[in-house]
């Protein structure tokens, strides 16, 4: 139920038509954002893909940007900005499709839970605008729709697509059997880093790059655990009643302590990345320093008892934390591309 979609705003203003006679009909729609002008029969499917709620898209796309900028720093020869932009565009389209398929699958298997959670009651399958069968057919169609993109990528990328797809499928079931579905969710997101490196024909888990790559991979998993646990606090009361398991439910009274600990480890791992990959001060200031400041300030500010504050953390975290990581790595790439002599951290120790 915590498949990242967007802020809770407006979504919890609707109740389930199957539960209340005062609500809109099953085909009613919020009609927000870019989906407003679509033909009426298409709108529930656009909602199912979360096309009207872009924030969750960043959760899918930013790891690919991290992977591209990281891989560009390791590559020899250094890839051109044109190549990076082209790959970024391919992954942009792919993440729209991937996110749509993941959300469609998640909403279908979670429909009974969603009808018990105020924020999720008006989702298309939960409210009856799309049937279970239609939802599964749509999920399969979206999954297949992403296949042609691999024509433009090295064959190794297709090998990474398999575990990503399986893990996103498994995540939707985890909240029934474990209090740690956020851990499972972190893996397919972080796997985008490996696919991006493969797109640049880098072997990130080879002996030379194994330690920094695994450190970056785990750091992204921890980041997912942090923001999705905070995000899940929006629904914590309903989740407890519905029997949904999550880290928010498990650590309800100590989430900030847990998140702060995970954030400290995340920043530590990002430092390991720079140290092992021999990155310059640009990376350490942008990626490590920027993400440390962003995580610290946001965790201090967020109010877990206020759904709007949890939604703010989720939305802004991609810009502040994710943005810091990407900016630091991309800055490192540009410095190497231009042949700039930037001091290494070791020079100051």
UniProtKB/TrEMBL annotation:
Membrane topology note: Multi-pass membrane protein
Record's keyword annotation contains Oxidoreductase: no
Assigned keywords, A-Z: Isoprene biosynthesis, Membrane, Mitochondrion, Mitochondrion inner membrane, Transferase, Transmembrane, Transmembrane helix, Ubiquinone biosynthesis
Region described as Disordered: spans on this chain: 1-30
Stretches with biased composition (Polar residues): 12-30
Residue stretches of biased makeup (Basic and acidic residues): 1-11
Domain of life: Eukaryota
Enzyme Commission number: 2.5.1.39
Pathway where this protein functions: Secondary metabolite biosynthesis; terpenoid biosynthesis; Cofactor biosynthesis; ubiquinone biosynthesis
Localization terms from the record: Membrane; Mitochondrion inner membrane
Chief localization: membrane
Residues passing through the membrane, by range: 58-78, 84-105, 125-152, 158-174, 183-203, 257-275, 281-300, 312-331
Group of enzyme by EC: transferase
Cofactor(s) for this UniProt protein: Mg(2+)
PANTHER family from the UniProt entry: POLYPRENYL TRANSFERASE AUSN, PRENYLTRANSFERASES
Function of the molecule: Catalyzes the prenylation of para-hydroxybenzoate (PHB) with an all-trans polyprenyl group. Mediates the second step in the final reaction sequence of coenzyme Q (CoQ) biosynthesis, which is the condensation of the polyisoprenoid side chain with PHB, generating the first membrane-bound Q intermediate.
Family: Belongs to the UbiA prenyltransferase family.
Protein name: 4-hydroxybenzoate polyprenyltransferase, mitochondrial
Species of origin: Stereocaulon virgatum
């Amino acid at each position: 139920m915590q498949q990242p979609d967007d802020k809770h705003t407006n979504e919890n203003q609707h109740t389930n038509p199957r539960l209340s006679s005062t609500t809109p009909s099953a085909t009613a729609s919020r009609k927000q954002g870019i989906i407003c002008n679509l033909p009426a029969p298409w709108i529930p499917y656009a909602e199912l893909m979360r096309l009207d709620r872009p924030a969750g898209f960043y959760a899918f796309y930013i790891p690919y940007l991290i992977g591209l900028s990281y891989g560009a720093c390791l590559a020899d020869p250094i890839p051109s900005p044109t190549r990076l932009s082209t790959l970024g565009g391919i992954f942009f389209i792919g993440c729209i499709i991937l996110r749509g398929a993941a959300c469609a699958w998640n909403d279908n298997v979670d429909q009974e839970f969603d009808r018990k959670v105020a924020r999720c009651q008006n989702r298309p399958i939960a409210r009856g605008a799309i049937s279970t069968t239609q939802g599964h057919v749509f999920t399969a169609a979206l999954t297949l729709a992403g296949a042609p993109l691999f024509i433009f990528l090295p064959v190794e990328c297709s090998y990474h697509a398999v575990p990503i797809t399986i893990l996103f499928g498994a995540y939707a079931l985890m909240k029934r059997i474990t209090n740690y579905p956020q851990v499972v969710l972190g893996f397919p997101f972080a796997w985008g880093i490996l696919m991006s490196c493969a797109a640049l024909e880098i072997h990130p888990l080879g002996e030379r790059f194994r330690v920094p790559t695994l450190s970056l991979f785990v750091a992204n998993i921890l980041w997912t655990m942090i923001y999705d646990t905070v995000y899940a606090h929006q629904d914590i009361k309903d989740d407890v009643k519905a029997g949904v398991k999550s880290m928010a439910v498990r650590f309800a009274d100590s989430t900030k302590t847990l998140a702060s600990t995970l954030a400290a480890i995340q920043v530590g791992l990002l430092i390991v990345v720079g140290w092992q990959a021999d990155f310059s001060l640009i990376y350490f200031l942008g990626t490590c320093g920027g993400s440390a400041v962003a995580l610290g300030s946001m965790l201090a500010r967020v109010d877990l008892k206020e759904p709007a504050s949890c939604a703010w953390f989720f939305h802004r975290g991609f810009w502040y934390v994710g943005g810091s990581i990407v900016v630091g790595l991309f800055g490192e790439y540009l410095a190497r591309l231009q042949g700039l002599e930037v001091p290494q951290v070791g020079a100051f120790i």
